[in-house]
Automatic annotation (TrEMBL):
Cellular component GO terms, alphabetical: plasma membrane
Domain G-protein coupled receptors family 1 profile, chain residue ranges per copy: 69-351
Family: Belongs to the G-protein coupled receptor 1 family.
Record protein name field: G-protein coupled receptors family 1 profile domain-containing protein
Pfam family, one: 7tm_1
Cellular compartments annotated: Cell membrane
Transmembrane segments: 48-78, 90-110, 130-150, 171-192, 212-234, 296-315, 335-354
GO terms classed as biological process: adenylate cyclase-activating adrenergic receptor signaling pathway; adenylate cyclase-inhibiting serotonin receptor signaling pathway; positive regulation of MAPK cascade
Membrane topology per record: Multi-pass membrane protein
One term of GO molecular function: Gi/o-coupled serotonin receptor activity
Main subcellular location of this protein, as a coarse class: membrane
Length: 370
């Protein structure tokens, strides 16, 4: 997500060498050509280096893979009735935001990275739309990760009170709040004239470096959901460890006599009559349930870890730079920006890798298409 000083790339060995701006017309000196004597003549663009071509190819593949993989998840959720429930609606909301990142944000960002003269050549209006969608979709993707973590937390810690009906209402509320908050952060500069600077003489547009806007946007889009997911996963880990530990102690071999015994941590009666097989069956059932919940907990942990690694470099830069009036080299800004975008690629990989139902649904979908 680009909040301030969005980076651009030149046709050089590196991706970027200057701050990202938006302009309604190209610079007169933006179209250049190199000569054997290192002189530059107008009228031609400099040739791309091999390294630049490789980087651009990788970014194009990243965009295509992000779009197709998230689209596949959405199609699967829509076609399979078993996925029309929680938590798959949260996964669908995440996939929608990630599809929009791949379809609307990443391609225009790549065009801007490759612009000659580090200019935005697509007009001021499209620049407004692009930046708004950038902030909206990336913020929604981040908050959807927080919503998935909250759903897992309530499932483990309040599994009796957190009924299916309550879960539906909570997930719908979290999805609505996610998109509403994301829209507020994205549209605040346009609605309230906060944070936008336009230089008519230079015909350049960029998001302001005002410290107040930097704090508002970065905290609302990243640091607040980061605090939520870290706190929630710490509670999930403690609750899961305690719950699984109690379950392990609750299922014990019973003597081969008829008796009725109340399980210590379950509201059900265990009836055995000379049948160690019954006890073994219940133990295997609990073991299957434990494995399912452990996989879900591990999935949330990996999802949060990848989210933090992908986005924290970018948001640290976006918060510190305006406050200290310093600037990071543009090559690093581009790297941090695309590292954040890559989170939209990793999200569907993670939550489908830990759910066998998705893998079976994918196989069924492609088999039927044949």
């Amino acid at each position: 997500m680009e909040a301030a000083n969005l980076s651009v790339a030149t046709a050089s060995v590196a991706l970027a060498l200057g701050p990202k701006t938006c302009s309604s017309s190209p610079s007169p000196s933006g179209i250049l050509s190199s000569t054997p004597g290192n002189a530059v003549l107008p009228g031609r663009e400099p040739p791309f280096s091999v390294f630049t071509v490789l980087v651009v190819t990788l970014l194009v593949l990243l965009i295509a893979a992000t779009f197709l993989w998230n689209l596949l998840v959405l199609v699967t959720i829509l076609r399979v009735r078993a996925f029309h429930r929680v938590p798959h609606n949260l996964v669908a909301s995440t996939a929608v935001s990630d599809v929009l990142v791949a379809a609307l944000v990443m391609p225009l960002s790549l065009v801007s990275e490759l612009s000659t003269g580090r200019r935005w050549l697509l007009g001021r209006s499209l620049c407004h739309v692009w930046i708004s969608f950038d902030v909206l979709c990336c913020t929604a993707s981040i908050w959807n990760v927080a919503a998935i973590a909250l759903d897992r937390y309530w499932t483990i810690t309040s599994h009796l009170q957190y009924t299916l009906r309550t879960r539906r209402r909570a997930s719908a509320l979290m999805i609505a709040l996610t998109w509403a908050l994301s829209a507020l952060i994205a549209l605040a500069p346009l609605l309230f004239g906060w944070g936008e600077v336009y230089d008519a003489r230079l015909q350049r547009f960029q998001v302001s470096q005002e410290p107040s806007y930097a704090v508002f946007s970065t905290c609302g889009a990243f640091y607040l959901p980061l605090g939520v997911v870290l706190f929630v996963y710490w509670k999930i880990y403690k609750a899961a460890k305690f719950r699984f530990g109690r379950r392990g102690r609750a299922v014990l071999p019973l003597p081969a006599t008829m008796q009725v015994k109340e399980a210590p941590d379950e509201a059900e009666m265990v009836f055995t009559a000379h049948c160690r097989a019954t006890v073994a069956f219940q133990a295997s059932g609990d073991s299957w349930r434990e494995q399912k919940e452990k996989r879900a907990t591990m999935m949330v942990g990996i999802l949060i870890g990848v989210f933090v690694l992908c986005w924290i470099p970018f948001f640290l830069t976006e918060l510190i730079s305006p406050l200290c009036a310093c600037s990071l080299p543009s090559i690093w800004k581009s790297i941090f920006l695309w590292l954040g975008y890559s989170n939209s690629f990793f999200n569907p990989l993670i939550y489908t890798a830990f759910n066998r139902n998705y893998n079976n649904a994918f196989k069924s979908l492609f088999t039927k298409q044949r």
